[in-house]
Amino acid sequence: MEVFHGLFYISGEFREKYVVVENGIIKEVKNELSGIGVTSIPGHIFPGGVDMHVHFRDPGETEKEDFGTGSLSAIFGGTTTVCDMPNNKVAITDTATFNSKLATIGSRSFVDYGLYQAASKSIVPEAIGQKIFLGKSTGGLVTDLDDCEWQNKLKVVHAELQECLDNNKREDSDLVSHDVNRPLECELGAIEHVFKYNLSGIHIAHLTSIRSVELAKSLGFTTEVTPHNLLLNNSLPITSFGKVNPPLRKRSVQEELLKNLNSKSIDVISSDHAPHTIREKEVFKDAPSGLPGVETRVPLILAAYNKGLISISKAVSVLMERPSEICKINKGYIAVGYDADFISIGLKKVKKINGEGLHSECGWTPFEGFEGIFPDLVYIRGEMAVQEGEIESKPMGVFLNAKEQRAKSS
Hints:
The chain has helices at about 65-75, 95-105, 160-165, 175-180, 185-195, 210-220, 225-230, 250-260, 295-305, 310-325, 400-410, and strands at about 1-10, 15-20, 25-30, 40-45, 50-55, 80-85, 110-120, 130-135, 155-160, 200-205, 220-225, 270, 340-345, 350, 370, 375-380, 385, 390. The two termini are about 30 Å apart. Strands 3-2-1-4-13-16-17-18 form an 8-stranded mixed sheet. An 8-stranded parallel sheet has the order 5-6-7-8-9-10-11-12. A two-stranded antiparallel ribbon has the order 14-15. It has a domain at about 50-330: TIM Barrel, CATH 3.20.20. It is of the alpha/beta class.
């Protein structure tokens, strides 16, 4: 048993509390405690971040990232749980490919993790959810919604309609033309298309405008935006290092999305961490789409709070609480029965983001020079993992088996 004392974010505000942890789970939250050794945590203590949308490239493309470097990057950014997407070089579509990926990851993850399967004719009960690709992106998958088995679990949608993408295909030479090739109409059309299938648990990933956010919400879906669509636009001089699907939009669309960051229509901010090597990104027309972001997601949004762009309660909701609820995992709250994942933040400790100082294998960031607030301390299930910029533990992340999670909740 361990006891932690500090200023914890609990029920919408920071409260000085004693938190009792046993076997990695919060057992008690108390105002006073005596007679027990106590570990004091400085700063403002948040739940660990939950990033429900990452692509760690493992197995198959580990020159870009593997689960070791991706999870190390996550934990240094204050994220203690990730959910990894299935569009690997060999797509994760069934039990055999799922188990092969799980075996490849082994004991190398620094954070807890769930794994998605690509929606197909097969059901993988252990998968955290099913991923639906309505248009081609990295890996080239397109989901035939009429030819899938569906389970009563989370379904994450890449909302770009392939027919629309085909109709708008042009020479891809810069960020503006990439936006023209994959216009907002493809995103809106995909949201309307999936609604026709009356599927449960639909979550629309990486929405790029407040129009598409509000459409998805009006149809009963949960919604996700990314730091890159909130903070970057296609007029910035970041060339192919800003090439991503769906694309960066024009400045007015990006600024409107950022202005609505406190909107009730936005459920989640995920990174869509999708790294590629610097060499791959050199020539725009040949560059693969995707950019890294798992380490900068929490720091960028906390910096946005410092600038008055988002309330602290909304920041905690989109970074920690809602992704945990949507994925049905025992994370995101400092409360009895939840995993003891904590991050300690000095809310005035702003620093410039530098790609060389981050931990992803790819070695770059589209947010070079942006302000971020990084955690001083990170605990995962009550064990210290990061302290003052140094890793303090071996990889101790555990696989979040959705089959077991459902059994516990039923």
